[in-house]
Fold each of these.
Amino acid sequence: MGDLLNPKAFRTKLEENVVEINWFLEQLYKLERFDVDKVFRQYMGYADRLKSHIVDTAMLVNKMIEGGKTCVVRRGARHTLGCGLRYLSLRHLLQFNAGGASTGTGVGPTKIDAVLGVAKAYTTRVGSGPFPTELTDAVGDGLQARGKEFGSTTGRARRCGWFDGVVVRYATRSERTHVTGRHETGCARRLQGAQSLHRLSVSGEALSRHAGRSPSAD
């Protein structure tokens, strides 16, 4: 985003990138090439609209915290088990996004005094990988349809299943190690996906026993 504030630097980077992109478009895909001037004018139009919103966010948030204001410093998604680099399912990853609540924000962990853990009212997963509570029947299809569980970019359907309490408990415990605070509060979202069900199942104790663990030990 910062490049938009410097037209000369943006133009230089654009010209360098378009050379390679145009080769692929013409030679491999047999498509029309990009016109540098047209793309440059288009993005300078975006710059005029966005420039008042482009700031050093780390500096902004830190000043707000120091001024006594309450800040939500990060919304983290696809953490820990589903698509987490640190834990368990590396070979099934689609995106690397494991880490603490302060990673990448420019806000140090000592400034975080409360953590809110958020999970869907049911479980979803994209791609392959273990999914103990997966529903491959009409109930799963219903969760998928009502919750609009499709990738925003690819449109690929997400696998759906019952809420997995064991996974959420593990994720809560493992992510605590990255911040000075703790998961003080939790809440469920996407309730609309499950609102028409007469029964909502939650895995917890039974799955712990199935895995050979004592629920009390967790």
Amino acid sequence: MHFGEPLDDERFATLLRPGGGIDTIITADVYGKGAADLAVGRALAGVPREDYCLVGAIGHDFYEGERQGAKGFPRLTDPALRGPEAYGDYIRMATEKSLERCGVDRFDVLLLHNPDRIGFTSEAVWAGMAALLAVPIIPSAITPAIWARARIRNRRRRNWSRDAPARTAARPSRSSVASTASSSGARAIPNAVTSNPCSVPRTRV
């Protein structure tokens, strides 16, 4: 929210608004502590819901957590914030608040934003995501292992860190993520960072 060329609100909304063959919009609740969602909501105002695919992302707790410098806000699974018994309530709360800010009644795809090892493997997290299938706000609860995997690839490509291969090896495998997800009734897309969830050629982020 605070980088790149400054844009006025009208120009920014125009860039975000679906159209011209770009019909998928991705937002994340933690960006600007909800400000990104609000910007998306302004851009989508008046656009028929069936004309676009909206992808949401939740997982960093800026409601109760405190920003930890460059590391950002803690993940929902931070033991200092809550235990596994409260993951589901947080996931639903964060999803509903993000939808409210976006001014819509559902996401087409919901991502678990930059999960840690607990987020990857906790059955309580997957169950919380899958539980959203029972309410009309997520037609397909998809909980991918995404940005962290992409970051590892970038580190290795740019030689940012000598221990990147070790970090890669330490992450849960695709099969373990998929197994944990399926046992909770959710679907996993481990490489969602390069997938096209709504079958459209281009995506606005």
